[in-house]
Amino acid sequence: MAEAQELLLQLQKDNRDGRLRKQELEELVRGLEAESESLAARLQDLSERERGLWALGALQTLLLLPLGVVALPLLYLALVNPSALRRGLARPGSDAALRRLRYTLAPLLQLRARGLLPA
Predict the structure, then answer these.
(1) Which parts of the chain span the membrane according to its record (predicted)?
(2) pLDDT in tens for each of the 119 residues of the chain?
């Protein structure tokens, strides 16, 4: 009888230890699930940020492309034939065009000199 009693006590102790271990494992699983959800949300945020940065990089490339299209031929021209570049940029208009412009703007310049137009 004493042996059966000891066996029963041992089984009860093992059962209690098993329940405690099960509770510990359940708490551990809940913690891991929460961490997994947190990491999944962080991964989603990083993916969205990466897409945004990729789009920004593509936009910058598209905006700088026309500058390269204009700048590279000018650089080539400046290195290969600098005199052609100077001739092309020397004067945007003729003397006659500048005289006409001065004649047209003279009344406005007089108004500005009298303080009737902002400087």
Answers:
(1) 53-79
(2) 888 888 888 989 988 999 999 999 999 999 999 999 999 999 999 999 999 999 999 999 998 898 888 888 888 888 888 887 777 665 666 788 888 888 888 888 888 788 777 76
Q: pTM for this one?
A: 0.45
Q: Compute the distance between CA of residue 43 and CA of residue 81 in angstroms, rounded to an integer.
A: 55
Tokens, residue 14 = 């093992």
d(CA 116, CA 107): 11
Asked if 111 and 117 touch (Cβ cutoff 8 Å), the reply is: yes
The H-assigned helical ranges of the chain are 2-80, 82-89, 95-113
